[in-house]
Amino acid sequence: MSGATGAGGATGGLAGGPGGTAQQPYGGQTPPPPSTPPAGGFSQPTTYAKGQPTPPRGTRVPGGPGGQPRRPGPPPSGGGTGRTRKARLRVTKADPWSVMKVSFLLSLALGVIIIVAAAVLWMTLDGLGVFSSLSGTLKDVTGSGSDSSGAFDLMDYIGFGKVMLFTTLIALVDIVLMTALATLAAFIYNSAAGFTGGIELTLAEED
Question: How many C-beta atoms surround the C-beta of residue 172 within 10 A?
């Protein structure tokens, strides 16, 4: 009976029952607790020995949360010169409506510039006395200096009003012609681009 009791006590001690004391495995030391992922979802740091190859980016890490692969970080910014990126594009179609609007505005601006330039030039020449000297020279050449009734007056032909009227007519014709020619050129380009593929451009962008 005593032997059976001793065996039962030993068995209860090994099993950790109420009648005995649980033995300490691992040579009398307390076993480490099961590894749990830390708060925040970050994995435990991995230590590699010197010379040991590291796994490439994107591979699954056993200690990571849920076995998810590591995301590759941003590429290192080079401190040297920037890299030039190039793109080859083709202009296959030009919208005639947009070409007409742009050409109309440009021709209108050019017409205004012509009118203003003509007015400034006429006033500058008149202030310098160019027209009066030309009128006197023509009167002397034609011999009508004493006869004022039949004298030739240059200002009747190149007066400010007539010059501005003539310049305005030229500006209006320029607006109509430039707008019409640009729109016609857009139609012609679209027809030619259908056969040739259009004009090829190379665009470069520096980082």
Answer: 13
